[in-house]
Every structure is written in C-alpha cells, then in structure tokens.
Design brief:
CATH class of one domain: Alpha Beta
Structural class: alpha/beta
Strand order of the largest sheet: 5-6-7-3-8-9
Bound molecules: adenosine-5'-triphosphate
GO molecular function: ATP binding; ATP hydrolysis activity
Order of helices and strands: EEEHEEHHHEHEHEEHH
Keywords: ATP-binding, Cell membrane, Membrane, Nucleotide-binding, Translocase, Transport
Protein name: Sulfonate ABC transporter ATP-binding protein
Number of strands: 9
Distance between the termini: 35 Å
CATH topology of one domain: Rossmann fold
Family: Belongs to the ABC transporter superfamily.
Radius of gyration: 18 Å
Largest sheet: 6 strands, mixed
Organism: Novosphingobium barchaimii LL02
Oligomer: single chain
Mean pLDDT: 85
CATH superfamily of one domain: P-loop containing nucleotide triphosphate hydrolases
Number of helices: 8
C-alpha cells in the first residue's frame, strides 16, 4: 500500500453503515495555482455503494485517483482501506497475456490460477480463461476487469465510468453484475458516472460534486428494482436541478428497465 495513505481504521460513520471504509477531512488538491478540490469532507461506510456525479472538470477523477492511492495526499487526513481496486472506462488488459493471467496478475502462490478461474466464473467468463484479450467484446473485457479487481477482495472498489463505452443493453447487464458482485463481496464502492439514471439504479448514496465541493447528497433507501423505479422521476429531477442541469439528461429509462431486478 502507498505509505502516504493512512492505514484503514474503524471510525464512527452514518447509522446505516457501522464503520467507515473511507474518511477524508478537509482534503485539498491543487495543480499549481489551480485548486481542484478544496476542504472536502467525505466518509464512505464499509460496504456502502456511493456514486459520484458532477459536470466535466468538477474533480471526480481527481478524487477517485486520491482514494486509489494514485496521487499524493501530502500528509493530509485521508483514511482508506489497505486493499483497493480500480476499474476504468477501458479495461486496460495486457494483450500479450491470456485472460486468466490478466486476472491473476500480481497474485502470489500456487492458487493464483484457481482464484482467477473462480473470479472469471463469477463474472460469467469461466469458459474464456485461455482467450486473448483482443478476442473479447467490450462488455466481456469489462467483466474481466471486474474479475481482476474483485479477485483481491478489496475493501474499496473504485469504478471510473466503467460502463460508459458500452451499449445500453450491455450496460444494464453490467449493472446487474456489479450489484450481484457487490452483494457477494461487500466492498465499499465509489463509482463515477455522468449518468443520473445509472446513479439512481445502483447507489446507496449519490454525491454531487461541483467545483471540487460536495454540493448535494441523496441517500436512497428504496430497494433496487421496482420500488426504486417508482421513486426515480422526482429523484432524477432533484439531482438534475441540484446540478443546475449541467449533466446531460438522456431519455434512457435505465431505472425503469431495472424494475425486474432483485432488491
Ligand atoms: N494532472 C493534472 N494536471 C493539471 N490539471 C489537472 C490534472 N488532472 C486534472 N486536472 C484538472 O483538474 C480538474 C478536474 O479534473 P477531473 O479529471 O478530476 O474532473 P472530472 O470531474 O473527472 O471530469 P470528467 O467528467 O470530464 O472526467 C480539471 O480542470 C483538470 O483539467
């Protein structure tokens, strides 16, 4: 783990989540004269699914990179779990390594292949162990990326617009998959998206970031699926107006299509 980040500690959190996986206090990040994130306080509960929405340039990826340990925190008060994994918009697989070796990358011990196989089975790709990454579809490649992330049982899973490049139907299937993986492994999740409907379909809590500050939050307690689809229109309206209409509203009825999903 990155020595600049504080070790995981148990701290009080919201009543819903007994302990915090992530805690930032007064976090600030600047590039030269340009302050991108300023005095940010954030807690994410263990096992909580948080979605971060915000206009382009609001600091979402900067925050995600900080939590991933990819950027320096310069001794600031940043607490994250020791094990974290990131899935980006592109799967970032090594094309010269077979699928299972991509998943097993960095795993030690004789069980690495078995662990990779189990993870690939979980994402429905148990039959593609020996495939080369370039023979996979975009959705399959993202499933491999999810398997690679989860095989390490991270305490924090960071998702940076992981489904943005996929077609609508594949994206819906990925939502179901990510929810079932999350239910099984229960990492804290912070997912960045531009898609308000995706946020509503997946999140325990939606956070709106603007100018590097949290400008609004919505905790969603309705069960995922039909119950959530019922509350989606006013919630969508609230989120969009909090964002000042800066996030593109799409006609996609993602939440409605999730109505058949398990809670
Ligand atoms: N390495 C860097 N050097 C200088 N400026 C940077 C760097 N990384 C990000 N920035 C600036 O920080 C601001 C926030 O960028 P960031 O990528 O976090 O935004 P974002 O909300 O993720 O945007 P998008 O939705 O377009 O991905 C932008 O103005 C960007 O130009």
């Amino acid at each position: 783990m990155d020595a600049r980040l504080t070790q995981f500690t148990t701290v009080p959190s919201s009543p819903t989540f007994a302990e915090a996986a992530v805690r930032l206090r007064g976090f600030t990040r600047s590039f030269g004269e340009n302050t991108i994130i300023s005095g940010l306080d954030l807690e994410i509960g263990a096992g909580e699914f948080v979605v971060l929405l915000g206009r382009s340039g609001s600091g979402k990826t900067t925050l995600l990179r900080t939590l991933a340990g990819l950027d320096p925190v310069d001794g600031q008060d940043v607490t994250v779990p020791s094990s974290r994994a990131v899935v980006f918009q592109d799967a970032r697989l090594l094309p010269w390594k077979k699928v299972w070796r991509n998943v097993a990358l960095g795993l030690k011990g004789a069980n690495a292949r078995d662990a990779a196989q189990d993870a690939l089975q979980e994402v429905g790709l148990g039959h593609r162990l020996e495939a080369w990454p370039l023979t996979l579809s975009g959705g399959e490649a993202q499933r491999v990326a999810l398997a690679r992330a989860l095989v390490r049982e991270p305490g924090l899973l960071l998702l940076d617009e992981p489904f943005a490049a996929l077609d609508a139907l594949t994206r819906l299937r990925m939502h179901e998959l990510v929810l079932s993986l999350w239910r099984r492994h229960r990492p804290a999740v912070m997912m960045v998206t531009h898609d308000v409907d995706e946020a509503i379909a997946l999140a325990d809590r939606v956070i709106l970031l603007d100018g590097g500050k949290i400008v609004a939050q919505e905790r969603i307690t309705a069960a995922r699926g039909a119950e959530r689809a019922g509350i989606a229109p006013p919630l969508r309206q609230r989120l969009l107006s909090a964002l000042g209409g800066v996030v593109e509203e799409r006609p996609a009825d993602v939440v409605a299509l999730h109505a058949g999903a398990r809670p």
